[in-house]
Amino acid sequence: MAVFTEVTKAQANDLMQALNLGQLTALRGIEGGIENTNYFATTDQGEYVLTLFERLTREQLPFYLYLMKHLAGRGIPVPDPAANRDGDILHTVSGKPAAVVNKLAGKSQLQPQAVHCAAVGGMLARMHLAGADFNRSQPNLRGLPWWNETVPVVLPYLDEAQATLLRSELAYQNHIASGAAYAALPQGPVHADLFRDNVMFDGEQLTGFFDFYFAGVDTWLFDLAVCLNDWCIDLPTGVHDAERAQAMVRAYNQVRPLSAAERELLPALLRAGALRFWISRLWDYHLPREASMLKPHDPAHFERVLRARVNHPVLASGLV
Q: Cβ atoms within 10 A of the Cβ of 178, count?
């Protein structure tokens, strides 16, 4: 959530008025993240988040915005895009496509315990089921085809050991994706980026999932693996935390029981989740874009997570 495009208070106020959200009283750029321009916009009616989309196109954006509307309508606590008098939820600010959503209550839990991981697991399963009949489809734009395109771009920046790991893991994931077990994995809309800072809590109560702009149709197991790789590891080392992982997977499994194919491929998809974010962080770190408040994440973190997942596979039998 960096600031690539500066928005004036007058521009923001005009949009809030058009959306019947009240008179703007404060506008503040949001730090963190690296894809879009984001502001907190406060009006005399409430608090909102204004997003200007820097990479996603007008053709791609309806999937994300209507997915949020669909999930909100099914009782999943997610931001609900605001519509103008014509019913449009995709707007324009400073020549960029834009959206305004309600600001969720609570704050991110950056040092989660088992109770928080269980809440995420249960809500993630509810979200998957709620999105199963969503009538739009768009692939995960940071899925395997993107990995295959991007790895050659980042390889020149790596040392020999890193390059060897990256090439071998990409080959492994292409092999997994071509197999019958992978083809049997249940699919649907996924968040694909549900890290600790994309979930809100009030104490131990989960109050919302947000930042759906990496969402797409993919395997539900990949979504769960991404969560396990962030919520259920020791951040400094990347080492698996069994207690938190059990809490998350068991809560998920109670709502939507994992299939045989999902249980079989959990170790492989944990590796896939780590690979995806290692590649994207290498790309953002070595080929950055200019932006106010932009702070690229350290790619070494997901290199450690991937090595841990390769060297110490986590089996579903130890979690469910």
A: 9
305, 267 contact by CB (below 8 A): no
CA distance 229 to 316: 14
Is the Cβ–Cβ distance between 85 and 135 less than 8 Å? no
What distance in Å separates the CA atoms of residue 176 and residue 163, rounded to the nearest whole number?
20
Which one, of 267, 239, 271, lies nearest residue 171 by Cα? Answer: 271
Cα–Cα distance for residue pair 119/264, rounded to 1 Å? 24
For the segment 16-62, what is each residue's pLDDT rounded down to a tens digit?
999 999 999 999 999 865 689 999 999 999 999 999 999 899 999 99
H helix or E strand, kind and range, residue 190: strand 187-190
Tell me the Ramachandran region of residue 94: left when phi exceeds 0, alpha when psi lies from -120 to 50, beta otherwise: left
The backbone torsions φ and ψ at residue 39, rounded to the nearest 5 degrees and listed phi first, read -135, 145
Type of residue numbered 217 = V
Q: Single out the residue of 131, 120, 145, 158 nearest to residue 245, CA to CA.
A: 120
